Amino acid sequence: MNTPVRFGAICLLGFGVACVDPEGKLDDFSERVIDAGEDEDVDAAAVDDIPDATGTYLAAFIPSLLPSETVQFLAEVEVEDDGEDPTLSISMQPLDTDTREPVGDEASAEDVSIDGAARFSAVLAEFPPDSEGCDPEPDNPVVIPADASPVGSELALTVTLSGAIVTDELLCGDVEAVEFGTLGCEDLDGSTFGMIRVDDDVDPADLPEPLGSCPDD
Predict the structure, then answer these.
(1) pLDDT class of 179 with cuts at 50, 70, 90
(2) Does pLDDT of 13 surpass 60?
(3) 10 Å Cβ neighbour count for 132?
(4) Taking all residues of the chain, what is their mean pLDDT, rounded to a whole number?
């Protein structure tokens, strides 16, 4: 049996991996993504309206240890905006690396707060608060079957997506992730994600090329 591997949001003591700080991660992300490609840091500006990003997306992670590879998902996003406390819910279904057919189980995050700059921090799986060195493991990791894995073996991950709704067709940002099992509790700091809108009933053969990070423009 293949050993699970995991990406995500964690709090480890004494292993060089810091506790996740969602607000801090959003601030760090905004300095990189707002007006990306310019030399100076730009604070995230408030938006007049949160983009209506409800729909179906092709999502992809670029793991920092394998920057030429992607882990792909078909994602469903729902944005609720009452004008005061907008939230986002997301479910992500792994896709076979060859056929891009759905495989394995979905991972999800519900009722994630969206701030005034359309940023969010969605925890799909995380370690228990008392974890040290990836022990104990999370109860519900994000599991990537071997058929959907760029390394050809099952991955079981903790995952936090710290990003922004850029437009009503694009979400992107950073992935806080740790792999434990095959790589032995490896921090995947520097991983990124991108999500591009597709038709609700899209045929796997017609899916576009994945976007695994925020575009420069």
Answers:
(1) confident
(2) no
(3) 13
(4) 83
Walk me through the domains of the chain, giving residue ranges and CATH numbers: 22-36+51-202 (2.40.128.120)
Cα–Cα distances in angstroms (integers) from residue 114 to residues 33, 35, 78, 122, in the given order? 16, 20, 12, 10
pLDDT of residue 8: 38
In angstroms, the CA 57 to CA 196 distance is 5
Cβ partners under 8 Å of residue 66, min gap 6: 150, 151
Q: Read off the pLDDT of residues 16-64 as tens digits, 9 standing for 90 and up.
A: 333 344 444 444 544 544 444 443 333 466 888 899 999 999 999 999 9
Q: Over the range 150-185, which residues count as b (16 or more CB within 10 Å of their CB) and which as e?
A: bbebbbbbbbbbbbbbbeeebbbbbbbbbbbbbbeb
Instruction: Tell if the pTM clears 0.90, that is, is over it.
Output: no
Report strand pairing: 71-80 vs 55-62.
antiparallel
Residue type, 113: S
